[in-house]
UniProtKB/TrEMBL annotation:
Location of the region described as Disordered in the Swiss-Prot/TrEMBL record: 1-21
DUF6396 domain span: 204-312
Polar residues composition bias: residue spans: 7-19
Protein name as it appears in the record: DUF6396 domain-containing protein
UniProt-listed InterPro entries: DUF6396 (IPR045653), ISR_Activator (IPR052748), Sel1-like (IPR006597), TPR-like_helical_dom_sf (IPR011990)
Phylogenetic classification of the source organism: Bacteria, Pseudomonadati, Pseudomonadota, Betaproteobacteria, Neisseriales
């Protein structure tokens, strides 16, 4: 981490990652691809990749991100390559999208698709963190909060971890609350766990369930967060944990957490046992296949095969 301490690189102001606006036509393809990917039953990943590709090359950020994830998980199935990953990331770099700097840092760190250069990787990670990317904030924060760090360096690392945690980064939340517990900052800890629950983190829901249980409210126990026993509140968090386990691969969220289990001292409201995300997921309509003319127009604009989403030159 010595390279980060040069040229005032350790200065850090917490910034949240912005959500880019998406082009309307490409968004139609993205939403259909996402529907194909998350519907129940067998998955047709080449078709999912087809629509993500055309949307991504037409400037759709989320399609770009999801296509990268598909290629990393099912590269051969979706005909993805390291070269395509690099090109997709360059699209985001050209738009100054924070995650693109994090991705480039990873590539430079591991020598994937580019010559390995750990020092350059740190610069890309720092740029991503400054622009609000929580993954970069956590990665650098974790490196800076080691036992051998000076107080100044540790404080900067902790700021980065807290910033990532407040954006819902799961591991950052767990690391920061572990520190808060040692400092007896229990209310700060459960506030971060509530953010984790809102973002669909089952571990956060589990910890809050135990924190309000009869065992967790005993000092000295693993789950003690300075709370009073509240069995109904504990039960509700346990139910949320079950939701996150049941829909794990679909990335569930709990945006209505404050209507289900607001943090003390707020009283528990009446609750019918349902979740906004689950109702929307189970009741979402089947989406029609995007219009052939739209698919062809967007594909032609980027030199892609409308039938596969792959570059025409690779046919």
């Amino acid at each position: 981490m010595k390279d980060l301490s040069k040229n005032n690189d350790l200065s850090f102001t917490c910034t949240s990652e912005p959500t880019p606006s998406e082009p309307q036509d490409a968004d139609i393809l993205f939403k259909y691809a996402r529907w194909l990917e998350t519907k129940r039953g067998p998955k047709n990943f080449p078709q999912v990749a087809r629509f993500y590709r055309i949307a991504a090359w037409n400037g759709h950020y989320k399609a770009n991100r999801n296509l990268r994830n598909l290629i990393l998980a099912y590269g051969d199935v979706v005909h993805g390559t390291n070269s395509e990953l690099y090109d997709l990331n360059k699209l985001l770099l050209d738009r100054n999208i924070p995650v693109a700097y994090f991705n480039m840092g990873n590539s430079l760190d591991g020598g994937r698709g580019v010559a390995r250069d750990p020092k350059a990787a740190l610069r890309y990670y720092k740029r991503a963190a400054d622009l609000g990317n929580p993954e970069a904030q956590y990665l650098l924060g974790d490196k800076l909060t080691v036992k051998t760090s000076t107080a100044e360096v540790w404080d900067v690392g902790q700021k980065m971890r807290v910033c990532a945690a407040k954006q819902g980064h799961k591991q950052a939340i767990l690391d920061v609350i572990a520190y808060y517990r040692t400092e007896k900052k229990y209310n700060d800890a459960i506030a971060l766990l509530q953010i984790g629950v809102r973002n669909g983190d089952g571990q956060s829901a589990f910890l809050l369930s135990r924190a309000f249980s009869s065992d967790g409210t005993q000092k000295g126990t693993l789950f003690y967060f300075g709370q009073s026993t509240d069995l109904e509140r504990s039960k509700r968090y346990a139910t949320i944990y079950d939701l996150t386990e049941r829909y794990f691969i679909y990335n569930p969220k709990v945006p209505d957490i404050d209507k289900i289990a607001p943090l003390p001292p707020a009283p528990l409201p009446k609750w019918d046992g349902t979740f906004q995300w689950e109702k929307e997921y189970l009741n979402r309509p089947n989406l029609p296949v995007p219009n052939d003319e739209l698919v062809r127009r967007l594909a032609d604009a980027k030199g892609l095969d409308p039938a596969t989403g792959l570059p025409l030159k690779s046919k």
